[in-house]
Design a protein that fits this description.
This protein has a two-stranded antiparallel ribbon with strand order 1-2. It is 60% helix and 5% strand. The chain contains six helices and two strands; from the N terminus they run αββααααα. About 12% of the residues have low confidence. Helix 2 runs antiparallel to helix 5 and helix 4 runs antiparallel to helix 5. It has two domains: 38 residues, no CATH class; 101 residues, no CATH class. It has 154 residues and is mainly alpha-helical.
């Protein structure tokens, strides 16, 4: 009987241990925000800025597709501008360098919408992606491989 209880206890412990290794809820510093979920694909949690960056990635693919098909570019400037106000995973990463690089990125977004020809739009798009890449090289290298896939070969 003691063996059965010991085995069951051990199996429960192992199950709980492995479950906690794959998914963890962490409360945020600000009690007014929802807790962020952590897991294997998102080891740093889902901060407001991380979620925004994922949306920006999806929107960038939509912009690229629109340019390649010579269609109107979806208007996402307001969404992209939130990169200055969104709460990051690590507060100390949002420093003066982040602000300068964010401003450079937003200028490149504006230039993308000012471009007229398909070639100008492709060039402006690649400059925008390059600004993403430069910032991530300096602050958060995790998504660099994903960002490099956004480039359009001209």
């Amino acid at each position: 009987m003691k063996k059965i209880i010991l085995i069951i206890s051990f199996l429960c412990f192992i199950t709980i241990f492995f479950y906690n290794c794959t998914k963890k809820i962490v409360s945020t510093a600000d009690n007014n925000t929802a807790p962020k979920e952590m897991g294997e694909t998102n080891p740093n949690g889902s901060s407001e800025l991380a979620l925004l960056m994922r949306e920006m990635d999806k929107d960038s693919w939509k912009i690229r597709e629109a340019i390649e098909k010579n269609q109107n570019i979806p208007d996402i400037k307001d969404k992209f501008a939130k990169l200055h106000t969104a709460t990051p995973t690590e507060i100390d990463k949002k420093d003066a360098t982040y602000k300068v690089m964010g401003d450079a990125f937003l200028v490149s977004v504006d230039n993308l919408y000012k471009a007229n020809s398909k070639e100008e739009k492709l060039s402006a798009y690649n400059i925008m992606v390059n600004n993403c890449l430069n910032c991530h090289k300096a602050a958060c290298p995790g998504p660099i491989v994903k960002i490099k896939k956004l480039f359009v070969n001209q």
